[in-house]
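Whether sequence alone determines local backbone shape is best considered at the level of individual chains. When preparing material for the folding task, we compiled for one chain both its residues and its backbone structure tokens. The sequence in question and its structure tokens are set out directly beneath this paragraph.
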Amino acid sequence: MKNLNHFQTRPKVAPLDVKAYLEKLGVLKELPSLNYLRELQKKHLLTIPFENLDIHFRRAITIDIRKIFDKIIPESRGGFCYELNFLFYHLLIHLGYDCHLISARVMNSQTREFGAEYDHMAVLVKIQTDLYLCDVGFGDGFVYPKKLEETTLQMDLNRYFQFLVDPDGNCFLKKTSDTLHFDPVYQFTTKYREPIEFIDMCDFHQSSPKSHFTGKKMITILTEEGRITLTDKKLKIVEKGEVLEMDVLNEDDFYSKMEEHFGISYQMLLQN
């Protein structure tokens, strides 16, 4: 895979309370390295949930690092990709990593087509001469950063991921549980993207009935044993390969389960 040069100039980013952020993750500050990057991404996924609750409270989400930081770190909330990966990108920059934002087009499981450009925000990190894809804003995605190395199978807990590249330089991330049948996850390029370029799609995913985010409330988080996911309809707990599902009886039951499993109360949502 071509190692394109998008890392000549370090971007200007807003000040960030790195100490509070790392304390939230339960991680000490270290010099940039691949092992530290792996730890940061995993701890992020274990600590901060992927959720779309503000959309259903008609609370506008803007790509504003100060607002995002306050919501996620001191207020102990989660967010979706434009919040989580934007925040993680700022952390990496402040820790000394060479990185930039990229745009990805997510595969629609129903239409089997890729979404529009800026459908998803992710982070590309350069370590020595290698590029790594980082993503803490995709829900049930990959736990560890993935090296942009074409065709190589990369294990991630109980799944494998692989990159393919077409002649035009489009990268395709695919996943498999058996190394035989691959499902496309998303398509992207390594092109540097500015935060402002994501604004229209961020607004779309908050307001359009065509966005899967507006259809139902959802919150999910990685655990050391598996994953916990809550929607309007079901609570799903995956633990050591075993799956437990419970119906959500009503809205009160949803908020009760949300507080029990994610530590977010209904009153917290109203106050924020």
User: Anything to note?
Assistant: Residues 18-207 form a domain with the Arylamine N-acetyltransferase fold fold (CATH 3.30.2140.20). The CA atoms of residues 102 and 122 lie 5 Å apart. The two ends are 44 Å apart (CA to CA).
